[in-house]
Design brief:
By secondary structure, this protein is an alpha+beta fold. The chain contains 9 helices and 20 strands. The strands form 4 sheets. Strands 4, 5, 6, 13, 14, 15, 16, 17 and 18 form a 9-stranded mixed beta sheet that branches. The two termini are about 30 Å apart. Bound molecules: flavin-adenine dinucleotide and glycine (GLY). Pfam families: DAO.
Amino acid sequence: MKPIDTIIVGGGVIGSAIAYYMSARGMKVMLLERDRVGSQATIAAAGMLAAQAEITEAGPMFDFARASRALFPQLATDLRDLTGIDIGLKRKGLLRVAVTEADVIEIQRTLDFQKTAGEQAEWLSTEQVRYKEPSISSEILGAMLVEEDSQVDAPELCSAFAQAAAVLGAQIVEFTEVKSLLFAQRRISGVMTNVGAIYSDKVIIASGTWSGSLLAQAGLTCPIYPVKGECFSVLSHVPLVQSTIYSHGCYLVPKKGGRLVVGATTTSHSYNRKVSLGGIAQLLEASKQLIPGIVDTEWEKAWCGLRPQTLDGLPYLGAHPHWKGLYVAAGHYRNGILLSAMTGNLVADWAEGKIEKNLSLESYRVDRHDNVHCEKEGVPS
Ligand code: FAD
Ligand code: GLY
C-alpha cells in the first residue's frame, strides 16, 4: 500500500475540497473526521456563491472569492462524472435588495465598486425587480442584480468532494478524532487520534471552528471563534422566487423541489447548537418584508451551524513558519462554500511545491498575529 502523503484533519467542505483536489493530482491523502463528513458548519450553509454580494470591498478576499466562484461550473461537471452527485449549481443570479434609504446608498456604493472592479452588476428599480420576481414586495426600494453570483447545495457539494476524493484513492475516515499533533526533528510527523497514531510528513488542519486548539499545540495562535447562524426552510408548490434574494436581516435561497432556505442569524462566541424561537421569529419578520407570500408556505425545518470566524475576518491559509509539513486552511467564516474550490486548489499547489502567484496570500499568513512560539512546552523539537 502506498504511504499516506498527507493527513487532512476535518471533513467539512474545506477538508473535503482539499482531499478532492489533492487526490485529483495523484496524491495519497487520508481525511480524518471526528463525526460524519460535512456534519458541522457545512451542513448548515445556504450554499450561496455570493462573491459580489457578500464581499463588497477591494482586497484579497474579493479576488479569491471571484476566482473560486469561477471554478464551480466545471467542478459541478467533474464531481457529477466522478460520483453521480448533482451539487445543485443554480446560476439564476442574486438580487441584493434595498429596504431602506440607507440600504439604497450602501448598495449603490457597492454597485460603483463592482463596476470599477470590472464586474457585472446593475441597479433595478422596484418595478424591474417585481417584473423579474413578482413575489417580491412592492415596498422595496430597488435592488442590485448580480448575474454571476450563483448557488449550490452545500451538503451535496461536501459529499461530492469527499466521495470524488475516495474514487480517486483518498481514505475518508469518519468518527476519528485527532487529539494531538506529533512532531519529530523540527517537522510534523503525524497525528494522535482516539484510535492511535497515524504518521505522515504533511498534516493540514482544516477543522473549522475547532482548529485553534490543535494549532496551539504547534505554538501558533490562530484564534477562531464560532458565530452561530440559524436558518429555516419552507416548501411551496410553485417556487416563490428564482433568484437568490439577499437583504439586511435575511436572505432567501431557492432550492429544488420548491424549497426555500431562509437565513441566517449571527451570534458570536456561541457553541450552543440549539435553534432559538427568537432567531426564527427574527428571520420570519425580515423575510415577510421581502416576500409577503412566505406566510402561506409550508414549514419544513430549522437548523443552525457554527461559522468559523477569525480576528480580522480572513481565513488562515498557509504553512507553519517553523514546523515543516504543517499547513492550515481554516476560518472561512461566512464564505467557506464559495471559497472551498479555490482553497482546495491552493493547498494542492502548496503540496506540489507551487506557489499561487495571482493571489495575495500574505494577508492569510498563519503567523500574521506575530505570536508564534515554536519551542512550546510539551512539543518535542
Ligand atoms: P466545518 O464544516 O465546521 O468542518 C470542520 C470539521 O472538522 C467538522 O466536521 C468537525 O467535526 C471536524 N473536526 C473538528 N475538530 C476535529 C478533530 N480534532 N479531529 C477530527 N475532526 C475534527 N458559506 C458560503 O460560502 N455560502 C453560504 O451561503 C453560507 N451560508 C451559511 C449559513 C449558515 C447558517 C452558516 C452557519 C454558515 C454558512 N456559510 C456559508 C459558511 C460555511 O458553512 C463555512 O464557512 C464552511 O462550512 C466552513 O467549512 P469548514 O470545513 O472550515 O468547517
Ligand atoms: N454566507 C451566509 C451566512 O453565513 O449566513
